[in-house]
Write a structure and sequence with these properties.
With 421 residues, the protein is mainly beta. The chain contains 1 helix and 45 strands. The strands form 5 sheets. A 12-stranded parallel beta sheet has the order 7-8-11-14-18-22-26-30-34-38-42-45. The protein has a 10-stranded parallel beta sheet with strand order 9-12-15-19-23-27-31-35-39-43, with no helix packed on it. α1 links the parallel β7 and β8. The radius of gyration is 24 Å and the shape is elongated.
Length: 421
C-alpha cells in the first residue's frame, strides 16, 4: 500500500529484541513497542524523514541510551539532531519562535516569509517545515529552487497558516507568483478575505499567478476563506493546480463565482489547468444571500482533467452546483472526466452537477454524477450555447430538477450531445 507524502518518524529497536516502527509525525503521540520481553537490554535509533514522490529525504536523526526492560511502561529518550540531506534543504518555522533564528531545528524561524529568504539555490529542492499556527500572509516570488514544499510537522493538517484577514483588513493567505513548482501538504490554509479587486487579484486562501504550478498533496486543507472570486483558490491564466489524494478544498465562500475554485484564461494559448487525481472540493458556498452567485464548487474558464476524487456538497444561487464552465469567443473550455464522483451538489439555478455554456467541450469516459439537484433545469448536466458533450462511459443517475431530466439542453441549435450510456 502506498504511503502519502509528509514527515514520518522511523524508530528501530536493537539489542536483545529487534523491531521497527514507522508512522507519520504527530504531536503528543507515543510510539510504542508492545512485545518487548521483560529483562531485555534494548536501545533505539530513529530518524524523521520527508517523503515526497515515493522518495525519502532525511530531516533529523538520533539515538537513545540503553535500558533494561521492566514490567509496565518503559521509556527510551531519543535525542535527535537535524541532518542536511544532500538533495533536500530543510528550513524550520515554529509558532512563537524567538527572533534571530537560522531555520535549523534548534533555531527555528518565526515566519514563512523569513524562510523564503533562504530559498536561494536553483539546484536544490527546499522544504519549509511548519510547526504550530503561523499568522501571516505569504507571497512566494523571487525564489531560486528546483522545487519548494511547505509541510506541517504533524500529520492531519494540525499545523496552520492563518492569514487573519477580514473585511477591514483584506488579503490572500498565500500568493504563488513563481514558476518554481510548489507543493503544500499536512497544512491548513485559512483566514483569507479578498473582495472585488480591479486588478483581478482574487482568491481567499490561495492565488496562482505568473505561470505557477501548485500541488495540493495529502492532508493539505484549504478552508474558512472568502473571496469575490475563488473563495478557496483562484487559478490565473498559464497556471496549473494539481489536486492529489487527501487534499481538501472545503468550507470556503465566494460572493460572485467559485466558492471552492475559480479559474481564468486569456485565450487558447494562455489558459488555466486543473488536474484532479484525488482529494475533494466540497461543502463550498457561492453567495446564497443574493441573486448573484455562480457555482459553489469549481467555476472553470480553462481546462479540467478529473482522474479521481470528488466534487460534492457545494451550493450556489446560479450556475452549476458542482462545476460551472464557460469559454470565450477565441477559446473553448475543456472538461474531461475519467473517474471520480460529482455528487450532492445543489443550485437554485440550472446544472445541479455541471453547468456548461458559451464554448465548452465536455467528455465523460468514467466516474459518476449522482444525487445532484437543480432548482431549474438539468439535475446532472445543463447545456447552453455552443457546447459539445460526449458521454462515453461512467454513470449519471438519481439527479433531480424541475422537469425530471438528468441532462437538459437549453439551446439545441448550437449544442451537440452524444450520449452512449
Amino acid at each position: 500500500m502506498s504511503r502519502g507524502g509528509g514527515l514520518y518518524i522511523s524508530v528501530s529497536l536493537s539489542g536483545d529484541y529487534e523491531d521497527l516502527l514507522t508512522q507519520k509525525v504527530q504531536a503528543g503521540y507515543d510510539l510504542a513497542f508492545a512485545k518487548v520481553p521483560v529483562g531485555s537490554q534494548v536501545s533505539a535509533t530513529a530518524k524523521i524523514y520527508y517523503l515526497k514522490d515515493g522518495k525519502e529525504y532525511d530531516f533529523c536523526k538520533g539515538s537513545s541510551g540503553e535500558i533494561k526492560v521492566s514490567r509496565g511502561k518503559n521509556t527510551l529518550n531519543l535525542v535527535l539532531s537535524q541532518v542536511q540531506d544532500s538533495q533536500m534543504t530543510f528550513i524550520y518555522v515554529k509558532e512563537n519562535a524567538a527572533a534571530g533564528g537560522t531555520g535549523a531545528l534548534t533555531s527555528p524561524l518565526a515566519s514563512i516569509s523569513n524562510a523564503l529568504e533562504l530559498v536561494v539555490d536553483s539546484s536544490k529542492d527546499y522544504t519549509i517545515v511548519v510547526s504550530g499556527t503561523i499568522r501571516e500572509g505569504v507571497e512566494i516570488s523571487n525564489i531560486q529552487a528546483k522545487s519548494l514544499s511547505i509541510t506541517g510537522l504533524n500529520s492531519g493538517a494540525s499545523d496552520v497558516i492563518d492569514g487573519g484577514f477580514s473585511e477591514s483588513s483584506e488579503g490572500t493567505v498565500i500568493r504563488v507568483l513563481t514558476q518554481v513548482s510548489v507543493t503544500f501538504e499536512n497544512i491548513r490554509i485559512t483566514g483569507g478575505y479578498k473582495s472585488s479587486d480591479p486588478n483581478g487579484d482574487f482568491g481567499g486562501g490561495l492565488f496562482l499567478g505568473e505561470g505557477a504550478e501548485v500541488t495540493l498533496d495529502s492532508a493539505c486543507t484549504i478552508t474558512g476563506n472568502f473571496a469575490f472570486q475563488g473563495g478557496g483558490v483562484y487559478v490565473n491564466a498559464d497556471c496549473t493546480l494539481i489536486i492529489k489524494d487527501g487534499a481538501f478544498i472545503r468550507g470556503n465562500k465566494s460572493s460572485s463565482s467559485g466558492g471552492g475554485i475559480c479559474t481564468y484564461s486569456n485565450s487558447d494559448t494562455s489558459f488555466s489547468t486543473i488536474k484532479m487525481y484525488g482529494g475533494s472540493v466540497s461543502d463550498n458556498l457561492c453567495n446564497l444571500d443574493s441573486s448573484m452567485g455562480y457555482c459553489g464548487g469549481i467555476n472553470l474558464q480553462g481546462k479540467l482533467f478529473m482522474y479521481g476524487g470528488q466534487i460534492s456538497g457545494n451550493r450556489a444561487i446560479q450556475g452549476g452546483g458542482g462545476i460551472m464552465s464557460n469559454g470565450r469567443d477565441d477559446f473553448y473550455s475543456v472538461i474531461e472526466l475519467y473517474d471520480g464522483l460529482i455528487s450532492g451538489n445543489r443550485t437554485q439555478g440550472s446544472g445541479g452537477g455541471i453547468s456548461l455554456s458559451d464554448n465548452v467541450t465536455f467528455k465523460m469516459y468514467g466516474g459518476s454524477i449522482t444525487g445532484n439537484e437543480a432548482g431549474n433545469y438539468g439535475g446532472a448536466i445543463f447545456l447552453d450555447k455552443n457546447v459539445d458533450a460526449y458521454i462515453y462511459g461512467g454513470s449519471i443517475e438519481n439527479n433531480s430538477d424541475s422537469t425530471g431530466s438528468q441532462i437538459y439542453i437549453n439551446d439545441e441549435d448550437s449544442c451537440e450531445l452524444v450520449n452512449k450510456l
